[in-house]
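REQUEST ID: PR-0412
SUBMITTED BY: lab tech R.K.
PRIORITY: routine
TASK: structure prediction, single protein chain
INPUT:
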Amino acid sequence: MNNGKHVRGKFKEKGDRAYKKFTGNKTEGQGFADKRKRKIQHEYWKLLKKEKKSKEENTKHVSVMDELSEEEESPPDVSKQKSTKKSIGTYSKAHHDFKQRKKEKQRKKQEAKKNREAMDAAIEKYNTRKQSNYKLLCKRTSKGQPVMKHQIDYLLEKIKKQKAKT
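STATUS: complete
OUTPUT:
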Protein backbone atom coordinates (compact mmCIF):
# COMPACT_ATOMS: atom_id res chain seq x y z
CA MET A 1 0.00 0.00 0.00
CA ASN A 2 2.93 2.36 0.65
CA ASN A 3 4.79 1.68 -2.67
CA GLY A 4 7.49 4.28 -1.82
CA LYS A 5 4.92 7.07 -1.54
CA HIS A 6 4.34 9.26 1.49
CA VAL A 7 0.73 9.51 2.37
CA ARG A 8 0.92 12.35 4.88
CA GLY A 9 3.96 14.28 3.56
CA LYS A 10 4.24 16.83 0.79
CA PHE A 11 6.06 14.46 -1.53
CA LYS A 12 4.36 11.72 -3.47
CA GLU A 13 7.59 9.98 -4.44
CA LYS A 14 11.13 10.16 -3.09
CA GLY A 15 12.58 11.35 -6.39
CA ASP A 16 9.95 14.06 -6.75
CA ARG A 17 11.61 16.50 -4.30
CA ALA A 18 12.84 18.80 -7.07
CA TYR A 19 9.52 20.59 -7.44
CA LYS A 20 9.96 22.34 -4.09
CA LYS A 21 11.65 25.71 -4.72
CA PHE A 22 11.79 27.20 -1.20
CA THR A 23 13.19 26.36 2.21
CA GLY A 24 11.61 27.06 5.52
CA ASN A 25 9.08 24.62 6.84
CA LYS A 26 9.12 22.93 10.23
CA THR A 27 10.45 19.60 9.02
CA GLU A 28 13.40 21.24 7.30
CA GLY A 29 14.60 23.16 10.35
CA GLN A 30 13.17 26.63 9.85
CA GLY A 31 15.19 27.50 6.73
CA PHE A 32 14.09 31.13 6.53
CA ALA A 33 14.87 31.78 10.19
CA ASP A 34 18.28 30.13 9.90
CA LYS A 35 19.12 32.16 6.82
CA ARG A 36 18.06 35.38 8.55
CA LYS A 37 20.07 34.46 11.63
CA ARG A 38 23.17 33.76 9.56
CA LYS A 39 22.78 37.10 7.74
CA ILE A 40 22.52 39.01 11.01
CA GLN A 41 25.60 37.22 12.35
CA HIS A 42 27.51 38.09 9.18
CA GLU A 43 26.54 41.78 9.52
CA TYR A 44 27.62 41.73 13.17
CA TRP A 45 31.04 40.26 12.34
CA LYS A 46 31.48 42.83 9.57
CA LEU A 47 30.70 45.62 12.02
CA LEU A 48 33.23 44.25 14.52
CA LYS A 49 35.92 44.16 11.82
CA LYS A 50 35.21 47.78 10.87
CA GLU A 51 35.40 48.91 14.49
CA LYS A 52 38.66 47.05 15.02
CA LYS A 53 40.12 48.61 11.87
CA SER A 54 39.07 52.12 12.89
CA LYS A 55 40.54 51.65 16.38
CA GLU A 56 43.86 50.59 14.87
CA GLU A 57 43.91 53.68 12.65
CA ASN A 58 43.08 55.92 15.61
CA THR A 59 45.81 54.40 17.74
CA LYS A 60 48.33 54.89 14.94
CA HIS A 61 47.26 58.53 14.64
CA VAL A 62 47.45 59.07 18.41
CA SER A 63 50.86 57.38 18.68
CA VAL A 64 52.28 59.63 15.94
CA MET A 65 50.82 62.70 17.64
CA ASP A 66 52.28 61.56 21.00
CA GLU A 67 55.72 61.10 19.47
CA LEU A 68 55.58 64.56 17.91
CA SER A 69 54.41 66.16 21.16
CA GLU A 70 57.17 64.38 23.15
CA GLU A 71 59.80 65.63 20.72
CA GLU A 72 58.45 69.16 21.03
CA GLU A 73 58.18 69.10 24.83
CA SER A 74 61.67 67.81 25.60
CA PRO A 75 64.33 69.25 23.32
CA PRO A 76 67.78 67.65 23.93
CA ASP A 77 69.61 70.97 24.50
CA VAL A 78 67.30 72.74 26.93
CA SER A 79 65.32 70.44 29.22
CA LYS A 80 63.96 73.07 31.64
CA GLN A 81 62.42 75.45 29.07
CA LYS A 82 58.89 74.84 27.90
CA SER A 83 58.41 74.36 24.19
CA THR A 84 56.81 77.27 22.40
CA LYS A 85 54.76 74.96 20.16
CA LYS A 86 51.78 73.28 21.77
CA SER A 87 50.54 69.91 20.59
CA ILE A 88 47.14 70.01 19.00
CA GLY A 89 44.58 68.04 20.97
CA THR A 90 41.77 66.14 19.31
CA TYR A 91 39.11 68.44 20.77
CA SER A 92 40.82 71.64 19.66
CA LYS A 93 41.50 70.15 16.24
CA ALA A 94 37.85 69.14 15.87
CA HIS A 95 36.76 72.60 17.06
CA HIS A 96 39.05 74.26 14.53
CA ASP A 97 37.72 72.05 11.72
CA PHE A 98 34.16 72.86 12.77
CA LYS A 99 34.87 76.61 12.63
CA GLN A 100 36.46 76.28 9.19
CA ARG A 101 33.48 74.32 7.88
CA LYS A 102 31.12 76.92 9.35
CA LYS A 103 33.01 79.79 7.66
CA GLU A 104 33.04 77.90 4.36
CA LYS A 105 29.30 77.28 4.62
CA GLN A 106 28.67 80.97 5.35
CA ARG A 107 30.82 82.01 2.39
CA LYS A 108 28.95 79.64 0.09
CA LYS A 109 25.62 81.03 1.32
CA GLN A 110 26.70 84.60 0.56
CA GLU A 111 27.99 83.56 -2.87
CA ALA A 112 24.71 81.82 -3.66
CA LYS A 113 22.78 84.90 -2.51
CA LYS A 114 24.82 87.16 -4.80
CA ASN A 115 24.33 84.80 -7.73
CA ARG A 116 20.60 84.64 -7.07
CA GLU A 117 20.34 88.44 -6.92
CA ALA A 118 22.31 88.81 -10.15
CA MET A 119 20.06 86.24 -11.82
CA ASP A 120 16.92 88.02 -10.61
CA ALA A 121 18.22 91.35 -11.92
CA ALA A 122 19.04 89.82 -15.32
CA ILE A 123 15.61 88.22 -15.54
CA GLU A 124 13.93 91.48 -14.59
CA LYS A 125 15.89 93.35 -17.26
CA TYR A 126 15.04 90.70 -19.85
CA ASN A 127 11.33 90.81 -18.97
CA THR A 128 11.11 94.62 -19.20
CA ARG A 129 12.90 94.65 -22.58
CA LYS A 130 10.66 91.85 -23.85
CA GLN A 131 7.52 93.64 -22.69
CA SER A 132 8.53 96.94 -24.33
CA ASN A 133 9.26 95.13 -27.61
CA TYR A 134 5.92 93.35 -27.39
CA LYS A 135 4.06 96.63 -26.87
CA LEU A 136 5.73 98.14 -29.94
CA LEU A 137 5.16 95.12 -32.15
CA CYS A 138 1.50 94.77 -31.17
CA LYS A 139 0.51 98.33 -32.04
CA ARG A 140 -2.30 98.53 -34.58
CA THR A 141 -3.77 101.19 -36.82
CA SER A 142 -7.33 102.41 -36.42
CA LYS A 143 -8.41 99.83 -39.01
CA GLY A 144 -6.67 96.99 -37.10
CA GLN A 145 -3.61 96.60 -39.32
CA PRO A 146 -0.17 96.21 -37.65
CA VAL A 147 2.11 99.27 -37.65
CA MET A 148 5.04 98.15 -39.82
CA LYS A 149 7.36 100.97 -38.72
CA HIS A 150 7.95 99.38 -35.29
CA GLN A 151 8.40 95.90 -36.72
CA ILE A 152 10.98 97.12 -39.25
CA ASP A 153 12.88 99.02 -36.55
CA TYR A 154 12.91 95.89 -34.36
CA LEU A 155 14.23 93.73 -37.22
CA LEU A 156 16.91 96.35 -38.03
CA GLU A 157 18.14 96.35 -34.41
CA LYS A 158 18.22 92.57 -34.43
CA ILE A 159 20.32 92.49 -37.62
CA LYS A 160 22.74 95.08 -36.19
CA LYS A 161 23.25 92.98 -33.03
CA GLN A 162 23.93 89.87 -35.09
CA LYS A 163 26.43 91.73 -37.26
CA ALA A 164 28.19 93.14 -34.18
CA LYS A 165 28.60 89.66 -32.72
CA THR A 166 30.28 88.31 -35.85
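NOTES: Helices lie at 31-73, 90-137, 148-165.
REVIEWED BY: pending
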